[in-house]
């Protein structure tokens, strides 16, 4: 629903294009320019909580991997606190960027397992941009080992079973570095749920 | 244990009548990369109304200046010297301070410094093509750079992108994330570009066109363009953890 009370209107989005890395991850584009690239560490080595790895691929409607994708991650720390208005440990920023391998489309990042925030089950927030995506896509990744908490999560509860399944990663927390797999599908029967936030 | 974080006001709903649709067949790549289901409306979750806080320690002092941030000492990139500046505001016209603004662009010949760009125009050894800055207390930002060139792209048999600078803006919440492109007043390619024309509102297209700003032009030195950016405002009445579905 459009509101009419504002003085100004939000600037229109445009695709990040195939060369988003130049601006947001120049090392990946093939050159070294900044002393410090932003988003390399979601949770530094001294962040509290269980360390995890998340790996995945973004798939288009033709079954091709999206090889130019950039994903941003935003999450609370292991206590469920956001590095925004809450107090968190210095080593924890809760925000990061990951890009895919240009040849395969595979991506992966390391972080700590987030705590629950409010009524919501633990999850990672993801924002996806690439060539051919006109407005960046928001989604969430939930953890397969939290099935009890999913029952009371207000976001998951408003989705039907098949939609909900698209937001739950595969994998488990039994290994030393728990590795989860989260594939994102832009189209098709198993299209991932994306949010209008 | 369930944590109850401090509440942050949710954002105004996005006005989709001013945003490009996901599926825009004239822009071929959207055909296979556009979600086909309606987005699920989600309002007021702390998870997205919060966001990271950036500070000056994150950036280098020269990151904003594309004329010098990659050039060899005493050298300069080739092309018209320009200043692109403006303010980041919210929909209530309040300045957004401390916003992270990042930009990237092709060089004056239309070539990107990217391992996947193979356009004929040469790389400029003194031009990286990216910059970043934080907005001031009044929402202002500025980049010094060269005017980018137009270049061909493989959307059709003879398709060219108008000259543009990509902008990434990070306001105060993850839900504010915005990437857009800044075009230049008078560029004849604008009406022919499928990416620009995917925007359903002419007024919204006009908002992406930087205007010549003679007042800020530096005589005998640099031409100035003005480009303001608007992020969504926050609703006046917070509604905690309330979900709204459409």
Write up what this structure looks like.
The complex is a heterodimer of chains A (197) and B (246). By secondary structure, chain A is mainly beta. Chain A is 9% helix and 25% strand. Chain A has a single domain (36-185), classed as Aromatic compound dioxygenase (Protocatechuate 3,4-Dioxygenase, subunit A), CATH 2.60.130. Chain A is built from four helices and ten strands; from the N terminus they run H-H-E-E-E-E-E-E-H-H-E-E-E-E. In chain A, the strands form two sheets. In chain A, strands 1, 4, 7, 8 and 9 form a five-stranded mixed β-sheet that branches. A four-stranded antiparallel β-sheet of chain A has the order 3-2-5-6. In chain A, strand 5 (123-129) and strand 6 form a beta hairpin. The longest helix of chain A has 5 residues, at 20-24. By secondary structure, chain B is mainly beta. In chain B, strands 2, 3, 4, 5, 8, 9, 10, 11 and 12 form a nine-stranded mixed β-sheet that branches. The two termini of chain B are 31 Å apart. Residues 238-246 of chain B have low confidence and may be disordered. Chain B has one domain (38-115, 122-231): Aromatic compound dioxygenase (Protocatechuate 3,4-Dioxygenase, subunit A). Helices cover 7% and strands 25% of the residues of chain B. Chain B has helices at residues 30-33, 46-49, 194-197, 202-206; strands spanning 40-41, 81-90, 100-105, 130-134, 140-146, 151-153, 159-161, 164-170, 178-184, 209-212, 223-226, 229-231. Classes of the chains: A mainly beta (197), B mainly beta (246). The interface between A and B is large, with 86 and 100 residues.
């Amino acid at each position: 629903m459009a509101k009419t009370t504002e003085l100004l209107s939000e600037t229109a989005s445009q695709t990040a294009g195939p060369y988003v890395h130049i601006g947001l991850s120049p090392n990946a584009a093939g050159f070294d320019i900044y002393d410090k690239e932003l988003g390399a560490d979601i949770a530094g080595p001294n962040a509290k909580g269980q360390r995890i790895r998340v790996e995945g691929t973004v798939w288009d409607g033709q079954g091709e991997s999206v090889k130019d994708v950039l994903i941003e991650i935003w999450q609370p720390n292991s206590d469920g606190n956001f590095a925004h208005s809450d107090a968190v440990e210095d080593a924890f920023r809760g925000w990061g960027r990951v890009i895919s391998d240009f040849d395969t489309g595979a991506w992966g990042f390391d972080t700590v397992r987030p705590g629950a925030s409010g009524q919501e089950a633990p999850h990672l927030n993801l924002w996806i941009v690439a060539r051919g995506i006109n407005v960046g896509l928001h989604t969430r990744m939930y953890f397969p080992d939290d099935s009890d908490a999913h029952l009371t999560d207000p976001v998951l509860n408003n989705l039907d079973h098949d939609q909900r399944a698209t937001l739950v990663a595969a994998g488990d927390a039994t290994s030393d570095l728990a590795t989860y797999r989260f594939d994102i599908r832009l189209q098709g029967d198993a299209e991932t749920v994306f949010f209008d936030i | 244990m369930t944590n109850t974080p401090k509440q942050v006001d949710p954002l105004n709903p996005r006005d989709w009548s001013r945003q490009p649709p996901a599926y825009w067949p004239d822009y071929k790549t959207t055909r296979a990369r556009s979600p086909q289901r309606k987005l699920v409306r989600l309002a007021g979750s702390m998870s997205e109304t919060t966001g990271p806080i950036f500070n000056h320690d994150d950036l280098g002092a020269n990151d904003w200046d594309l004329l010098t941030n990659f050039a060899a000492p005493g050298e300069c990139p080739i092309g018209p010297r320009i200043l692109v500046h403006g303010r980041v505001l919210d929909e209530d016209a309040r300045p957004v301070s401390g916003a992270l603004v990042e930009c990237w662009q092709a060089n004056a010949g239309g070539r990107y410094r990217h391992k996947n760009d193979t356009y004929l125009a040469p790389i400029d050894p003194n031009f990286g093509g990216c910059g970043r800055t934080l907005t001031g207390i009044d929402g202002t930002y500025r980049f010094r750079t060269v005017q980018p060139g137009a270049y061909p792209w493989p959307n059709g048999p003879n398709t060219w992108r108008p000259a543009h600078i990509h902008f990434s803006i990070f306001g105060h919440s993850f839900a504010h994330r915005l990437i857009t492109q800044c075009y230049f007043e008078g560029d004849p390619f604008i009406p022919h570009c499928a990416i620009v024309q995917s925007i359903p509102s002419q007024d919204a297209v006009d908002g992406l066109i930087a205007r010549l700003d003679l007042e800020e032009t530096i005589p005998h030195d640099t031409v100035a363009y003005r480009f303001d950016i608007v992020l969504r405002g926050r609703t006046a009445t917070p509604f905690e953890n309330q979900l709204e579905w459409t």
